[in-house]
Amino acid sequence: MEKIFDYLLFIDDDKATNFYHNYVVDHSGLVEEQKFFSSAKDALTYLGKIESGEIDKVPEVIFLDINMPEINGWEFLSLFENVKLPNPPNIVVMTTSVSPSDMEKASSNPLVMEFHNKPLTAEYLKNLKERILLETA
């Protein structure tokens, strides 16, 4: 299967979810590389290294969970506003939340491309790539 994404980044504190999403991504054959962080703080540190040029590979999409300890998804977005990356990634808030206020908060944030309920599927990845291509056309 053709790779449609070069690099995806996942930020979710749930190890079982990360394991499952890694499995889906690996078996989809659609992604060249993926990286998982169980801490938004660690992900911000990593993204800061991209900003400073220590790391040169920028993720195309960041999948961000909302409910995490230490720094939640909303706090991550607030801090991420200050990170300047070449070709800023699309951010998908991916959560189990069905709260209308979470959906509204995500849709009103200019950094967020969309709100998606877990779990991730290969079909969703294909459709997401199509939406990204339409947005950049």
Feature tags:
Rossmann fold; five-stranded parallel sheet
Topology, please?
Blueprint: E1 5-11, H1 15-28, E2 31-37, H2 40-52, E3 61-64, H3 73-80, E4 90-95, H4 100-108, E5 112-117, H5 122-136
Parallel strand pairs: 1-2, 1-3, 3-4, 4-5
Report what the structure shows.
- It is a single chain.
- The two termini are 24 Å apart.
- Strands 2-1-3-4-5 form a 5-stranded parallel β-sheet.
- The chain has 5 helices and 5 strands; from the N terminus they run βαβαβαβαβα.
- It has one domain: 3-Layer(aba) Sandwich (Rossmann fold).
- It is α/β, with parallel strands linked by helices and 137 residues long.
Under CATH at level 1, the class stands as Alpha Beta
The name of the CATH architecture is 3-Layer(aba) Sandwich
Sheet with the most strands? 5 strands, parallel
Unreliable stretches, pLDDT < 50, 5 or more residues?
none
CATH superfamily: Response regulator
Tell me, what's the shape?
globular
Physical arrangement of strands within the biggest beta sheet: 2-1-3-4-5
**DSSP summary: helix tally:** 5
Q: What is the CA–CA distance across the termini?
A: 24 Å
The average pLDDT is 95
How many beta strands in the DSSP annotation? 5
Q: And the CATH topology?
A: Rossmann fold
Could you write a compact summary of the structure shown?
The protein is an alpha/beta fold.
